[in-house]
Amino acid sequence: WRQTFPLDTDMPAGADSKIFTIWENTGMAEWYRGGGKHPNVAVGKREVSIPFHALTEAFTVDWLEMLGSSYAGVNVEADKAAAALAALDRKVENIVFLGDAAMNRLGILDHSNITTNTMTTGTWSSATAAQIVADIQYGINAVCTQSAADEDFQSMQVDVMMSPANYRICTSKLANSYTNENIEQVLRRLDGKFGRLMGKQAYIGEEP
Length: 208
Known about the structure:
By secondary structure, the chain is of the alpha+beta class. The protein has helices at residues 63-72, 76-98, 129-146, 164-172, 183-190, and strands spanning 17-23, 45-51, 99-100, 105-106, 158-162, 174-176, 181-182, 194-199. A two-stranded antiparallel sheet has the order 1-2.
């Protein structure tokens, strides 16, 4: 998901907010026949302040663990530090997808600006490859319809992010026995708007 939603961690220690500028209008001057003048394009800007919330995770190492790791030749501190970093990653992912009421941050799964559609087949545990391909294409078409007025989107492909279980289905289930292609490979060949599949980490209550 980090490829789709870049994570900005460029914050100095002790900061409690970050300010960035939003340009309210953009324009391109065009040469008008006859008049020979460039029109003036009104461009405004405003500053937006985003509150910054610190996330911390800690671990302890007692004397028995230190003694045991010394005998076993295992770096218990490194293992616990890696677990602490993984816990921070899980918290960040939960905030991205589900939001956090205490931080007053909305997640992308329930954001008011994001349109929700329901796949025709539903669960893919017993679905055929053709049904799964149709479901994904339905989602791609819905995105294209929703973004039809966005000129920048016309040259972009649609990336599909899904749970690890569904990702494994799409990358392992045979969809074409003649060409030995899986579902992802068939989509890449058939649908010019399809970009790539991404399997989200199983951190927010989904099956591993």
